[in-house]
């Protein structure tokens, strides 16, 4: 099993504050973390949201989730047997807590122990071949027998085959929508089977949220985020599974690709991954040998609230703010470059970027790059 010190335990009041903050306008996981670092606590951040957004150029105040709405969501989750967990609480997948945009609160159903096991992701084509489905079943079963939980996205094709083959050993479904908006709808029974047989389900989305196209890449980063590595069984050249592989690379996870016929377009993406350095995978042993050295490494906790909610150092001056905003544009620029070119401290640059984010004027890219939204 993955091990980490489970020292974080939110109070009821903190959990409501955290939920209010992450459900407020223009606050995503990275912004949430920046706000906690800047303000010291979620409650202090909630109080400062309007002023920070105004400084960033917001034309009107953004919506701040109310305490009543947050309490209702928590109560609705409890009725479904769902817990909203923070990184470091038991049942929050330990490796997911390490990624830059880890959900501050994750909706978790099922046996919490399954979330603490070492996981391997298996994803691939929805329109899978018979050979692809058979391979997904075989490797999911074999890895399950070796003590790994299998994580996938509950989609048709490869995902479905991997989940079903791992029902006896343990599998986790990562949802693109809320826990009450299963997609595809016909997999509601599959999810029930997963939850009844040692498995689990996770989502960062609120109740009532039906998944949109842009939510599936967000889900894919969670599939790779919880896992030691991800196996791509079949994927066309323009495939959501390749997005999962890209996230895995960015998160420092292992990428495994199953080779296929060059005549089958469903193998074009996996064959290309192998050319780019992914581990060629023909069986569970290839995966186990690659991840074995990682299993014993300690896992450290990220987000923590501070007790001191006093004045914040390094508040930007108007001239600092103008200089930093002037260096930004539609083309991405590195945050380190902004610090160097602006002649200000990293703390000041981070604060200005936070203000712009809350005003809906900043877009973050991979590799610490940011740009102004058009």
Q: In percent, how helical is the residue content?
A: 40-55%
Mean pLDDT, nearest integer? 92
Q: In the CATH hierarchy, what is the architecture of the domain at 117-187 and 212-294 at level 2?
A: 3-Layer(aba) Sandwich
Text of the CATH class of the domain at 117-187 and 212-294: Alpha Beta
SSE topology string: HHHHEEHEHEHEHEHEHEHEHHEHHEE
Strand order across the largest sheet: 1-2-6-5-4-3-7-8-9
The dominant shape is globular
Tally the beta strands.
12
What name is given to the CATH topology of the domain at 117-187 and 212-294?
Rossmann fold
Query: Poorly predicted ranges (pLDDT <50, ≥5 residues)?
Result: none
Description:
This protein is α/β, with parallel strands linked by helices. Among the domains are: 154 residues, 3-Layer(aba) Sandwich (Rossmann fold); 52 residues, Winged helix-like DNA-binding domain superfamily/Winged helix DNA-binding domain (Arc Repressor Mutant, subunit A, Orthogonal Bundle). The relative contact order is 0.14.
Outline of this structure?
With 374 residues, this protein is α/β, with parallel strands linked by helices. It has 15 helices and 12 strands. The strands form 2 sheets. The protein has a 9-stranded mixed sheet with strand order 1-2-6-5-4-3-7-8-9. It has a 3-stranded antiparallel sheet with strand order 10-12-11.
Q: What descriptive keywords fit this protein?
A:
single chain, about 375 residues, alpha/beta, Rossmann fold, Arc Repressor Mutant, subunit A, three-stranded antiparallel β-sheet, 15 helices, 12 strands, about 10% strand
